[in-house]
Amino acid sequence: MKNIQNIRTDYVKGVLRLQDLQDSPGQQLSQWLQDAITAEALDANAFCLSTLNSKGFPRGRNVLVKGVEEESIVFYTNKTSSKSADLSLNAKAGATFFWPELERQVCLYGNVSELSEKENDGYFASRPRESQLGAWVSKQSQPLSSREELDATLEAVREKYRDIEVIDRPSHWGGFRIAFVSVEFWQGRTSRLHDRIVYTKGERGQWQKGLLQP
Q1: Which of 23, 131, 176, 182 shows its CA 20 to 30 Å from the CA of 151?
Q2: In 3D, which of 188, 164, 23 has the Cα closest to residue 105?
Q3: Residues 102 and 34 sit within 8 Å (Cβ to Cβ)
Q4: How many CB atoms lie within 10 A of CB 79?
Q5: Which sequence spans correspond to the domains of the chain?
Q6: Out of 3.40.50.720, 2.30.110.10, 2.60.40.10, 3.40.50.1000, which CATH number does the structure's domain 4-124+172-211 have?
Q7: Given 17, 61, 192, 204, which residue is catalytic?
Q8: For the chain, first and last CA: distance in Å?
Q9: What is the pTM assigned to this prediction?
Q10: What pLDDT, in 10s, does the model give residues 164-203?
């Protein structure tokens, strides 16, 4: 096994300056997401969603962002999941994007709210059919006796909807919106002296940008 103490990367791919960033964090995040897509970054729209469980422990898992707005991001999930249970107890979350291909990271946190039924229906209808079926199959985060059990449930759901063109959305499936409180943009630099710029809101509700020590 390679000595992990000696594994390090000297980041050299970019520079981040206050004057180069957009006025709002949503605009800037959209730009960086597009840069990651253009660079063909693996799962460019993936981020680590962090929540707190009922015992106060943080839990993180990768999910996909499905909307970036001026002051929030949107994601969808099974609402019987552990992440949904956490958010029902504490409607606050963190999100971390990392694109090693660009040596960039975005860390944000904010207040969480549920999307409307209309929003949920609209996005569910746009999903691939197999993903729609999958939403009916998984009792997310619950114990599973075997993979065969899951596969059998999938086949039963496929059979149920075999001659049905439009698959209805499960009531337990829907989306959440994380409204930004703080959004930090990070660009890796040499010697661990990284560029960090954070957006926070001023007293009048306008976004302000500031530098942070690396």
Answers
A1: 176
A2: 188
A3: no
A4: 20
A5: 4-124+172-211
A6: 2.30.110.10
A7: 192
A8: 30
A9: 0.94
A10: 999 999 999 999 999 999 999 999 999 999 999 999 998 8
- Indicate the burial class of 178 (C-beta count within 10 angstroms; 0-12, 13-18, 19 or more): buried
Tokens of 109: 């946190």
Judge contact between 65 and 75, C-beta under 8 A.
yes
Q: What mean pLDDT comes out for the span 16-43? A: 97
Tokens of 153: 């449930």
Instruction: Map tokens 């020590």 to a residue.
Output: 213
Which amino acid does the sequence have at 165? E
What is the sign, positive or negative, of the torsion defined by CA atoms of 212, 177, 86, 145? Answer: negative
- Please say whether the beta carbons of 93 and 178 come within 8 A: yes
The amino acid at 178: I
List the beta strands (DSSP E) in 79-172. Answer: 92-99, 104-114
> Which amino acid belongs to residue 173?
W
Please say whether the beta carbons of 154 and 138 come within 8 A.
no
Residue 58, strand partner residues: 52
CA triplet 164, 64, 40: central angle to 5 degrees?
110
Q: Does 189 qualify as catalytic in the annotation? A: no
The pLDDT tens digits for 70-111 are: 999 999 999 999 999 999 999 999 999 999 999 999 999 999
